[in-house]
From TrEMBL:
It comes from Ensete ventricosum (Abyssinian banana). Pathway: Porphyrin-containing compound metabolism; protoporphyrin-IX biosynthesis; coproporphyrinogen-III from 5-aminolevulinate: step 1/4. It catalyses: 2 5-aminolevulinate = porphobilinogen + 2 H2O + H(+). It comes from the Eukaryota. GO terms for biological process: chlorophyll biosynthetic process; heme biosynthetic process. Catalyzes an early step in the biosynthesis of tetrapyrroles. Binds two molecules of 5-aminolevulinate per subunit, each at a distinct site, and catalyzes their condensation to form porphobilinogen. Homooctamer. It is found in: Plastid, Chloroplast. PANTHER family: DELTA-AMINOLEVULINIC ACID DEHYDRATASE (PTHR11458). Its main location: plastid. This is Delta-aminolevulinic acid dehydratase. InterPro entries: ALAD, ALAD_AS, Aldolase_TIM.
């Protein structure tokens, strides 16, 4: 039994000679046809895996029990290798010579077990961070622009949602508060009120579920009467260093309440180092900083701003959030955040910015987070409601793709629904 590999025209190696009595799967390549060798033959049909269909067909068995097979094997009796069976194409299928290919990548995709074995990226509930909107009220108020999302009452709805998420393996949460208008001001001082909504919610959650991970948003917009992430000067400029001062107080207040990871989403310059020093000065060396490193001035945040009623009162956020046209600039932000002591780097939005996720992944050893933002969520929900797409499949694919691009963790409004699917339950 010898097989000789020799270069065929075009430098492609093909199997020239083979002992075809021994190897069912390695018959010499027929030069005539590769269809229909069993029609009318008495050969037992060997159903093969169909490479072009999701419906897998198993090899027909001899019908013997395991014991009978064992006995036969012990007695040295082995059944003949099944004859080669090539199912036919439909009438009219062209009869062609097999292409002389050394690589047929489809071979590694031909069965569920092979596909699972070679899957490069995985998705798990532990990769998700669940963003939760909270408010002072008792009721859970549905958010029109984000079907399935609510402004949760911080005393009841919040605890219930966390309970349900934990049930499917989601243990990380990020809180976004809806602040009543009378508490908003131009300098956003409610942001560091130790008895404000966020610190109260953190304390309650930590009391009830001590082992969860609580991320907080560090930015002034929910607290700013101008709806901006920083303090607005009389000429409309967003003041950088003065805002950073406020953000430090906000981060320390959140840490004092028990936050595990403070997450500056404001895009002011130098805020990571300032926050690190402020936390350390108060003894919060163990509180992590997840920096919104590459946060773009994106229209995909629209539904979120409706959820929190936090639209900027004038202008836009283009003097602090990044220009969606820019790629290299994300490296400038990455280098700054790394040097300033960020623990996790975040890219936002998600799916339209996969190249930025990969850029950060390849240029930093730190964990990378991505935020699949409100607009991305709402588009998938809307497409599902209109029956234009399969919501569940698109949801799972979008999350997997964010992981493939290089994200370790994903902030996503689908966290609980997707985790339910991963746990083998119907989403929601
Ligand atoms: C503001 C903030 C925003 C989001 C998270 N934090 C909105 C903005 O920058 O205007 C958007 C999240 C989403 O759209 O889901 N600090």
């Amino acid at each position: 039994m010898a097989s000789i590999l020799s270069p065929a025209p075009g430098n492609v190696g093909v199997v020239r000679s083979i002992d075809d009595k021994t190897y069912v799967g390695l018959r010499p390549l027929s030069t005539r046809t590769h269809v229909a060798v069993t029609r009318g033959s008495k050969a037992r049909p060997l159903a093969v895996v169909r490479a072009s269909s999701e419906k897998e067909v198993s090899v027909k068995s001899s019908g013997l029990s395991i014991e009978e097979c064992e006995a036969a094997a012990v007695a040295g009796k082995f059944s003949d290798p099944p004859p080669l069976y090539r199912p036919q194409g439909p009438k009219g299928t062209p009869i062609v010579q097999p292409l002389p290919l050394t690589r047929r990548p489809r071979r590694n995709r031909k069965s569920p077990a092979l596909r699972a074995a070679f899957q490069e990226t995985t998705l798990s509930p532990s990769n998700f961070v669940h963003p939760l909107f909270i408010h002072e009220g008792e009721e859970d108020v549905p958010i029109g622009a984000m079907p399935g999302c609510f402004r949760l009452g911080w005393r009841h709805g919040l605890l219930e949602e966390v309970y349900k998420a934990r049930d499917v393996g989601v243990n990380s949460f990020v809180l976004f508060p809806k602040i009543p208008d009378p508490l908003k001001s131009q300098t956003g001082d409610e942001a560091y009120n130790d008895n404000g909504l966020v610190p109260r919610a953190i304390r309650l959650l930590k009391d009830k579920y001590p082992d969860i991970v609580i991320y907080t948003d560090v930015a002034l917009d929910p607290y700013s009467s101008d709806g901006h992430d920083g303090i607005v000067r009389e000429d409309g400029v967003i003041m950088n260093d003065e805002t950073v001062h406020q953000l430090c107080r906000q981060a320390v207040s959140q840490a004092r309440a028990g936050a595990d990871v403070v997450s500056p989403s404001d895009m002011m310059d130098g805020r990571i180092l300032a926050i690190r020093m402020a936390l350390d000065a108060e003894g919060f060396q163990d509180v992590s900083i997840m920096s919104y490193t590459a946060k773009y001035a994106s229209a995909f945040y629209g539904p979120f701003r409706e959820a929190l009623d936090s639209n900027p009162r004038f202008g836009d956020k283009k003097t602090y959030q990044m220009n969606p046209a820019n790629y290299r600039e994300a490296l400038v932000e990455t280098e700054a955040d790394e040097a300033e002591g960020a623990d996790i780097l975040l890219v936002k939005p998600g799916l339209p910015y996969l190249d930025i996720i990969r850029l950060l992944r390849d240029n930093s050893s730190l964990p990378i987070a991505v935020y699949q933002v409100s607009g991305e969520y709402s588009m998938i929900k809307a497409g599902g409601v209109l029956k234009m797409i399969d919501e569940e499949k698109v949801m799972m694919e979008s999350l997997l793709c964010l992981r493939r691009a290089g994200a370790d963790i994903i902030l996503t409004y689908f966290a609980r629904q997707a985790a339910s699917v991963l746990c083998g339950m119907k989403g929601n």
